[in-house]
Design a protein that fits this description.
alpha+beta; 3 domains
């Protein structure tokens, strides 16, 4: 899939290569090394490929989902941080560019993420991350969802989020925040 027409060096475009002892593809013209995992979610990994495939299996097949602690235990990883980053890499692949906007009845609200900290809280906070969410309502069930980190809850920011993520003609429901 990476090279549908066969190997092609990214630097010089040459099509001939040899494989090093470390499994890297080396261009015979410019001797530029290239990994099959370069540019993928597995880029820069030091773990064997079967770990990644097992991790993706758990990520995609568990009905209740998987968190970093579960993944660490399931794969026998030593580091929580490794498991945490492995969970976030496949999530980045789940965002489809050019996707269809939400439509019908769409509920929009914002919330803050960041734990307990002194100072302002809610919409007025400076020390937490503000996230806007929009979700399609399908009777008693929820449909597709869109989330976005925003700098503030001003009308301009929220209006831009809605116009980008909700189709014209949809009915937008909010909590009444004037922004």
């Amino acid at each position: 899939m990476k090279w549908p027409d066969g190997f092609q060096c990214l630097k010089c475009g040459h099509k001939n290569f040899w494989i090093s002892a470390k499994g890297l593809y080396i261009c015979t013209r410019c001797e530029s090394p290239l990994s099959l995992m370069a540019g993928t979610v597995m880029h820069g990994t030091k773990k064997p490929l079967p770990y990644w495939f097992k991790g993706m299996w758990w990520f995609t097949t568990r009905k209740s989902g998987v968190n970093a602690v579960n993944l660490k235990d399931l794969l026998g990883l030593c580091s929580y941080q490794t498991a945490w980053s492995w969970l976030h890499k496949p999530n980045q692949c789940n965002i489809r560019q050019g996707r269809e906007r939400l439509k019908g009845i769409v509920e929009v609200d914002e919330f803050v993420v960041g734990g307990q900290k002194p100072g302002k809280w809610g919409r007025g906070t400076n020390s937490k991350t503000i996230v806007v969410a929009a979700v399609e309502k399908r009777g008693k069930k929820l449909g597709r969802i869109r989330l976005q980190v925003v700098p503030d809850c001003s009308g301009d920011i929220l209006e831009q989020f809605v116009s980008t993520n909700v189709a014209p003609g949809s009915r937008v429901i909010t909590d009444g925040w004037k922004g």
